[in-house]
Write a structure and sequence with these properties.
The complex is a heterodimer.
Chain A (H helix, E strand, L loop, with lengths): L8 E12 L2 E7 L2 E3 L3 E5 L6 H7 L10 E9 L2 E2 L7 H7 E4 L10 H11 L6 H11 L3 H4 L12 H14 L4 E5 L7 H14 L4 E5 L3 H7 L2 E7 L7 E8 H6 L4 H7 L5
Parallel strand pairs in A: 4-9, 4-10, 7-8, 8-9
Antiparallel strand pairs in A: 1-2, 1-3, 1-5, 5-6, 10-11
Helix pairs in contact in A: 3-4, 3-6, 4-6
Chain B lengths: L8 H4 L1 H41 E8 L18 H11 L2 H10 L7 H13 L1 E6 L2 H6 L1 H11 L4 E6 L3 H5 L12 H32 L4 H13 L4 H15 L1 H4 L17 H25 L3 H9 L4 H29 L3 H6 L18 H9 L4 H33 L3
Antiparallel strand pairs in B: 1-2, 1-3
The chains are: A alpha/beta, B mainly alpha.
The complex binds adenosine-5'-triphosphate and magnesium ion (MG).
């Protein structure tokens, strides 16, 4: 995969549709994700947010019978082209899952493993410390690096997963409701972290929390089950976040963000 | 508590309903307890039965009184090797003596070995009668009286049929000299071949089927058939083993191509063939259990690994397998326990019964279950005592193998 286009857009989708078997979960999505910005994806449950997010690093392929049509361009290159290796895609586009899923290994090993997999030759201790610092977890775990990652609290585990993602130095970080199971303080920490990370990374985040989307994101994509299509989700509005939250052009968006939805 | 809620039976009397529910619970608990107790009773009965046969009174008669062989008042137990050889020379025909010397020269034999020969060839103890542990304990006086009356020359002893010599001696046609050394070694070697072949093959196949194979009709067919294979009677594996490992691959399994010219090798009816046959037998069990173990590894762990850009193989090797290993080992324990107790397929493959040398993988074989089967089939009571002792040995062997596997498993579980 070569980096050709040096536009402002990291990821661009064209008429993207994603299927689970015969079921079309997401239809006709056309998005342009800006580099070094935070893009939020919001919408009611089951409208295909996670599905869309997973299509950006080809994680949907783990679901048998799932396939996509249309295009996802990453730096101008079609992610789904035949010669593209999904392993490289996932290296360059990292992912943090809704449910924290640290490896059942030590905290140190959670971070070091990914780097080692990619043949990282530098100072591993330094990398671990830097990644944990960036994920705002260092102070809490610096004395227990060799304890199990599973022995941390849920919020700490989620930050550990973020640190693990950062450690392999991707270009884009996908986050699927990273704060949904966290208390307000841990949530705040993760939000601050995203502000911090945005200097070096492009972040796409799925969230159910309107305030969170309004607080942290620069752009917001509003998804909804499309009219006419049988239970197929699509992006009905995509714009700067403050515009979506103050002057949405679609009535359904307005209803949703103001909490008047269905 | 609501008093008159019509949606409860009994006119809404909550308590009555609760009592019924508790009663149902108690009944089921009793049923479950009863099944456990029945199981324990069956196992205890089995064990008691074996122990009953493995200890007890025995009346021996010596053809030649060992006291008469004493030299200058020194009993044969304490004689040096040279004098024991001398006793053999005097009491055996020169043909028999030279034959023994030709097999292994007397000066290369150990003293114990020569002593055993004296006992075996000259003194020749015969078991005149034997009693079970229960009889020995309850009718001790009668037994003693009867022996004095009926066999005045016999010596009555309370013995444990399972003892150090029984374990160290090779198989013999005389009950008093028979041991299970060759059978233990045969069982261990056979099971070693089985594990070395079936474990990697089984785990490999399970990894392929769970992690790599697509969910298409062909692979579904394969999966279903593996499940069916686990239920095929073991004798059929014996027939298969005979056809493949003994007949077709005889040159390999007899060791001929490796330059092994063991004269005792009977055309591929070797430890290797036996081990391979048992490997076939337990392969489906190992595959099914390993598949279960792999399936139990949470999908989120695979996603975590792939999302940092690991390849499928790195994911399987570093995360899926380490998490599945305890389950895989549990399945292997079950499979090996089954293999070590198998008799029928080994008889078909061509187990020998009288083997008096230490086996290697290219030699004829016998195993503990084969030995036990042979001994229990004989009419004389002493062989059944030996069989009981051999069963105890088999149980101990099985328990120690399983203990090893459990230690291994616990060590691998001691992760985070
Ligand atoms: N693995 C799968 N197999 C089949 N269908 C799936 C699978 N995952 C999701 N779907 C379907 O795709 C649609 C979109 O699901 P998705 O998980 O993307 O929704 P979502 O917007 O993330 O919802 P939520 O906010 O509840 O997480 C749903 O109708 C769901 O049933
Ligand atoms: Mg979701």
């Amino acid at each position: 995969m070569s980096t050709t286009a040096d536009s402002n857009y990291v990821i661009e989708t064209r008429h993207l549709a994603i299927f689970y078997g015969d079921f079309k979960a997401v239809t006709d999505v056309n998005l342009r994700i800006q580099r070094h910005k935070i893009t939020a994806i919001i919408g009611p449950s089951g409208c295909g947010k996670s599905t869309l997010l997973r299509s950006f690093n080809r994680m949907n392929e783990l679901v048998p019978e799932s396939h996509a049509s249309g295009q996802v361009l990453f730096d101008g290159q079609d992610l789904y082209a035949r010669q593209v290796d999904p392993v490289e895609v996932r290296h360059r586009i990292g992912m943090v899952f809704q449910k924290p899923n640290p490896f059942p290994k030590s905290i140190y090993e959670n971070i070091a493993w990914g780097a080692r997999v990619h043949g990282y030759r530098g100072n591993m201790d330094e990398l671990v410390e830097r990644s944990l610092h960036q994920a705002a977890l260092w102070d809490e775990v610096k004395d227990i690096l060799h304890r199990s990652g599973l022995a941390l609290s849920g919020g700490q585990q989620q930050r550990l997963c973020i640190a693990r993602t950062i450690a392999v130095q991707p270009e884009v970080i996908l986050m699927d409701e990273p704060a949904s199971a966290l208390d307000p303080i841990a949530t705040l920490k993760i939000e601050e972290l995203m502000e911090e990370l945005k200097r070096n990374y492009t972040i796409i985040i799925v969230t159910h929390n309107m305030q969170q989307a309004a607080r942290v994101s620069d752009y917001t994509a509003m998804m909804m089950l499309a009219n006419g299509h049988a239970r197929s989700g699509t992006v009905i509005e995509f714009d700067e976040t403050n515009k979506i939250f103050t002057r949405p052009s679609d009535k359904r968006t307005e209803d949703y963000v103001t909490g008047r939805f269905g | 508590m609501k008093k008159n809620n019509p949606s409860y039976s009994n006119g809404g009397r909550f308590r009555d309903n609760l009592a019924t529910r508790h009663r149902a619970g108690v009944i089921w608990q009793i049923v479950f307890q009863a099944s456990t107790v029945i199981g324990i009773i069956a196992l205890t009965a089995l064990l008691l039965n074996i122990i009953d046969g493995a200890f007890g009174y025995v009346a021996y008669e010596a053809r030649v009184d060992p006291a008469s062989l004493a030299v200058d008042g020194v009993a044969i137990e304490d004689l040096p090797q040279e004098l024991l050889v001398e006793i053999l020379r005097q009491n055996l025909s020169s043909g028999a003596f030279n034959k023994l010397d030709n097999e292994i020269p007397f000066n290369e034999r150990s003293r114990i070995n020569v002593y055993d020969l004296v006992i075996e060839r000259i003194v020749r103890y015969d078991v005149t009668e034997s009693w079970t542990l229960r009889e020995s304990l309850t009718q001790g006086a009668e037994i003693r009286a009867r022996v004095i009356e009926e066999y005045p020359d016999a010596e009555l002893r309370f013995i444990s049929w399972i003892n150090a010599e029984f374990i160290q001696r090779p198989q013999s046609s005389e009950a008093v000299n028979a041991g299970v050394r060759t059978a233990i070694l045969g069982s261990l070697l056979t099971i070693l071949v089985t594990i070395l072949v079936a474990f990697p093959l089984g785990v490999g196949a399970a990894i392929y089927l769970e992690e790599y194979a697509l969910d298409n009709w062909l692979n579904r067919l394969i999966r279903t058939n593996i499940n069916n294979l686990a239920g095929v009677p073991s004798i059929i594996y014996g027939i298969l083993g005979l056809a493949i490992f003994v007949r077709v691959l005889g040159v390999l399994t007899s060791g001929a191509v490796f330059g092994s010219v063991d004269p005792t090798t009977a055309s591929g009816r070797t430890v290797l063939s036996a081990g391979l046959t048992l490997a076939l037998l337990v392969l489906p069990l190992i595959i099914i259990n390993a598949q279960e173990a792999l399936r139990a590894v949470p999908q989120s762990l695979r996603q975590a690994s792939l999302s940092v850009g690991a390849t499928k193989w790195q994911t399987v090797w570093s995360h899926v397998l380490p998490n599945a290993i305890p389950g895989i080992l549990t399945g292997t324990i079950l499979a090996v326990s089954r293999a070590i107790g198998e008799t029928a397929p080994l008889i078909v493959v061509g187990a020998s019964t009288a083997i008096s040398f230490d086996p290697n993988i290219f030699s004829r074989f016998t195993t503990l279950p084969i030995q036990i089967y042979q001994w229990t089939a004989r009419p004389q009571a002493e062989w059944r005592h030996l069989a009981a002792a051999a069963i105890l040995v088999l149980i101990v062997l099985l328990l120690s193998l399983n203990a090893t596997a459990i230690v291994l498993r616990n060590r691998s579980t001691k992760r985070f």
